[in-house]
């Protein structure tokens, strides 16, 4: 058993875990430190290079505003540091720790390769300064690397991964951690400094920035981004409301006109809620069962495990963080790089109503229904044969819930380039998908008013309509071409 720490001053380094409840690093730090401060480091240049867009970053910063208010109730000041790149973080964090007389730094692990390299460098520099640092596994139900085949190898297929993970999870209860204890006022009445000059124009401050280079985030103080209310309180409210209809999830989740999904993905991505809290809610409504019981609950748990699977893959296969396909042979596919056609797809001007309505939903609300994500990804990568990485990047630039692991995994699944991918001959027919999952055209009419007057049959594959574009590609011919291209890889 590890000896419990006893430190005078600790620092919690927040990243993609912007909540107070069930936060491993925050809770552990509050248990072993007499006094506690928190830090968030904004790296807008790196975020931009990773494709993160305005909505995602604005939502992150809005969540940070709410977190700061909640931490104040526990006498934990939240500092912000605005620097350009990850490469500057180790030295900056060392300087912060020394200036604030910090003895230990606590953080929750992040798994894309650049984030892992940053964290290793931080560990090295802090250890050389005699500052204790601990990273916790907090973003997943089980730590990446802990779910293995009988031969000790990582799983490459979802179903056996899920089976083993559920066996391991069943061995211990899921108990979300409480909020941290209320910390004493520093040194019997003095206060943590409001700000510190760090040199070279960098200031450590308790004021969350309202502007960042490369980003438009000036509306974050209101807590609303693209119609999404940010923060931990809102995440808990949504979780509770979803729990009231979760039993209908399997039956209704594929119909975009219905409000039948949890819409918790932005909160999971920013860390305003944890995957453990989600699993705990589902289990509490399913008599503690991970499988069986309510089909709706079991189906939603399975969706949580898909998130888990993709995160584990990032650690086991670093090439996924480097723009490479899981199936390396698919690099030989002669992708089409037609910017004009791609822009039509991005604007929702393909002439295929369900695709266009989905893209309008994304561009207007920074979110897209999961069934629609598969339809538009299949249309781009199969019917149009445009490189899936273009679509992956577009999603990251526009989604408010742009989780790298899930976005990469979903695109590679649809494009048949990834682990556990859709068979190459599976190409979503956008017209039949539309008829099946938006049968009366309710969703299409909501986002494409030009088609509102069409009947329920015509609206899925309309005749020429003034103000609405003609189809930009032959859907049937595109399907045949994609199948032939993939078949030649065999």
Kindly state the number of beta strands. Answer: 9
List the quaternary state of the chains: single chain
Shape: globular
CATH level 3 topology of the largest domain: DNA Cyclobutane Dipyrimidine Photolyase, subunit A, domain 3
Superfamily (CATH H level) name of the largest domain: DNA Cyclobutane Dipyrimidine Photolyase, subunit A, domain 3
The first-level CATH class name of the largest domain: Mainly Alpha
Number of helices: 19
From the helix content, strand content and strand pairing, which structural class follows?
A: alpha/beta
Label the CATH architecture of the largest domain: Orthogonal Bundle
Q: Percent range for helical residues?
A: 40-55%
| Proportion of residues in extended strands | 5-15%
Terminus-to-terminus distance:
52 Å
Low-confidence stretches: none
Q: What pattern of helices and strands is seen along the backbone?
A: EHEHHEHEHEHEEEEHHHHHHHHHHHHH
The overall pLDDT, averaged over residues, is 95
How many distinct folded domains?
Answer: 3
* Physical arrangement of strands within the biggest beta sheet: 3-2-1-4-5
Radius of gyration: 24 Å
Largest sheet: 5 strands, parallel
Keywords: Chromophore, FAD, Flavoprotein, Lyase
Pfam families: DNA_photolyase, FAD_binding_7
Protein name: Deoxyribodipyrimidine photo-lyase
Cofactor: FAD; (6R)-5,10-methylene-5,6,7,8-tetrahydrofolate
Explain the layout of strands and helices:
Blueprint: E1 7-14, H1 24-32, E2 33-42, H2 44-49, H3 54-72, E3 78-82, H4 89-99, E4 104-108, H5 113-128, E5 132-136, H6 158-169, E6 195-199, E7 202-205, E8 224-225, E9 228-229, H7 232-243, H8 249-252, H9 265-270, H10 275-284, H11 295-316, H12 339-347, H13 353-365, H14 370-383, H15 388-398, H16 404-415, H17 430-437, H18 442-447, H19 475-487
Parallel strand pairs: 1-2, 1-4, 2-3, 4-5
Antiparallel strand pairs: 6-7, 8-9
Helix pairs in contact: 4-5, 6-11, 10-11, 11-16, 13-14, 14-16, 14-19, 15-16
């Amino acid at each position: 058993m590890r000896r419990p720490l006893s430190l005078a001053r600790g620092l919690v380094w927040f990243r993609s875990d912007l909540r107070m409840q069930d936060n491993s690093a925050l809770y552990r730090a509050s248990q072993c430190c007499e006094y506690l401060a928190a830090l968030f480091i904004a790296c807008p240049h790196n975020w931009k290079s990773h494709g993160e867009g305005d909505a995602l970053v604005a939502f992150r910063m809005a969540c940070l505003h709410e977190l700061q208010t909640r931490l104040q109730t526990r006498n934990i000041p939240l500092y912000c540091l605005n620097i350009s790149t990850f490469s500057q973080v180790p030295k900056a964090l060392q300087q912060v720790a020394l200036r604030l007389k910090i003895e230990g730094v606590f953080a929750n692990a992040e798994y894309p390769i650049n984030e892992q390299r940053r964290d290793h460098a931080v560990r090295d520099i802090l250890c050389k300064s005699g500052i204790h640092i601990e990273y916790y596994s907090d973003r997943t139900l089980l730590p990446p690397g802990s779910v293995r085949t009988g031969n000790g190898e990582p799983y490459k297929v979802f179903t056996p991964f899920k089976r083993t993970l559920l066996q391991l999870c069943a061995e211990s209860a899921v108990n979300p951690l409480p909020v941290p204890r209320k910390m004493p006022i520093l040194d019997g009445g003095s206060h943590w400094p409001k700000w510190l000059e760090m040199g070279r124009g960098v200031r450590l401050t308790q004021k969350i920035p309202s502007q960042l280079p490369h980003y438009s985030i000036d509306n974050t103080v209101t807590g609303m981004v693209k119609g999404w209310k940010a923060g931990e309180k809102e995440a808990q409210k949504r979780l509770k409301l979803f729990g009231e209809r979760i039993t209908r999830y399997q039956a209704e989740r594929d119909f975009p006109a219905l409000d039948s999904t949890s819409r918790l993905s932005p909160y999971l991505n920013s860390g305003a809620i944890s995957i453990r809290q989600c699993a705990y809610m589902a289990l509490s409504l399913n008599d503690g069962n991970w499988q069986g019981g309510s089909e709706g609950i079991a189906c939603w748990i399975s969706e949580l495990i898909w998130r888990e699977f993709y995160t584990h893959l990032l650690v086991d296969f670093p090439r996924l963080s480097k723009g490479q396909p899981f199936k390396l042979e698919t690099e030989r596919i002669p992708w089409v790089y037609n910017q004009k056609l791609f822009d039509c797809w991005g604007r929702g001007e393909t002439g295929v109503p369900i695709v266009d309505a989905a893209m309008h939903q994304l561009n207007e609300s920074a979110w897209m229904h999961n069934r629609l994500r598969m339809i538009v990804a299949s249309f781009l990568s199969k019917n149009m044969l445009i490189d899936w990485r273009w679509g992956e990047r577009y999603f990251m630039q526009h989604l408010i819930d742009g989780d790298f692991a899930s976005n990469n995994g979903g695109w590679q699944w649809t494009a048949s380039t990834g682990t556990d991918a859709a068979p190459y001959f599976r190409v979503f027919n956008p017209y039949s998908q539309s008829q099946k999952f938006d049968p009366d055209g309710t969703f299409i009419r909501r986002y494409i008013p030009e088609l509102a007057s069409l009947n329920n049959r015509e609206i899925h594959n309309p005749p020429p309509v003034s103000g609405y574009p003609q189809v930009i590609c032959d859907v049937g011919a595109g399907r045949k071409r994609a199948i032939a291209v993939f078949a030649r890889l065999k």
